[in-house]
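yo, non-specific serine/threonine protein kinase is done. seq:
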Amino acid sequence: MGEVFAGRYELVDPIGRGGVGAVWRAWDQRRRRYVAAKVLQQSDAHTLLRFVREQAVRIDHPHVLAPASWAADDDKVLFTMDLVGGGSLAHVIGDYGPLPPRFVCLLLDQLLSGLAAVHAEGVVHRDIKPANVLLEATGRGRPHLRLSDFGISMRKGEPRLTETHYVVGTPGYFAPEQLTGAEPDFPADLFAVGLVALYLLQGRKPDSQALVEHFRAHGTPCAPQGVPEPLWQVLAGLLQPDPEARFRTATGARKALAAAVELLPDPTGEEEPVEVFDQVGPLPPGYGPDGPVAAPPPGYGPWSPPPSPAPAPAPPAGAASGTSGFHLAPPPARPAPAASPPPAAAPSASPAPSTPPAPSAFPVAGPAAPVQPYGSYAPYAPHPTAPYTAPTAPAPTAGPAAVPAPAPRGRPGPPRAVAVPVVLLALVCYAVGFWALTRI
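structure:
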């Protein structure tokens, strides 16, 4: 079994790795379910402060994967969240390449919905990229997206943990204002959402620097190949280099996306349905869907009876036994003797019974039975016994007179010193009551 952390979380197997910690599949012994546990790898003050900020994010939204609980054990800390098994957007692109526009619009709408909830809490994510957008393992059903990894997120107005001109995030998904050291703000997250949408439509990481230069030099370009024009108008509003010309809120971008979806052409039958596979993998040995299972003893399989022990080999003649005894050679086999009639009963004063009595387990008379070799049986011959005589009671002997058993004692009453005052008090109460009745 795995290591039990803080007496509650049993680490099962590693399923991922982040910038400051490893992600494990863990069994929550209190809630009786599997969770994802992010364990801090470093313990310096700077990393620990970021870890504390991340676990403090509590956003309950169907499209946000935020920390749910945390625990500390000696010099180690972790926080847990829901276990999402469908992998990230990078896994889907690796399986299918460019995705159909309507499927991308569905994912983009869910991403903007979760980001709107994050921004409503005053939190700037600062690291939106395909690897941080996870999917539930829904198969060919409706996809379900979860925005995760708040490792470098911060609330507006909080002090920054880095220098003013130090850029934090993933290269290729920075907003232009981030490169100039501007304070983190919501439009920077929306710029990264536009780059993620291009990644899903084209199947490769977009060149954000070339895109920004083209916007600044020539204005909004034409729609790239494979991107419908109504959808491109929404993405262009997310990718504007000037944050003042960009969508200001995720809710506004989501409304524009809903209007663009109405103008998209109907899907053709040639589009391959997108299936979101389970990327976490099966549970290791010793774990089942309902948690850890007891390992069977060696040689025992499921629904198989225990193997019967092999018969011990017979020790050779004259060999010493394991209990300091000594095994003797078996006696030589002899042929069974012919059955002989039972000998006549000894004469007695009383006549013999009409039916022979039942054989006794302990013969009291008659010749000894012949010894039979091991494994052979001789016809049964009952031993003659004397007729049954009822035992007589022994004569009474003189002795001391029997002492009669004492009579059972009753429940003891209260002592006299208590009983007498109680009785007198009862009589006084009775007299007072009777006198009061006569006065009515």
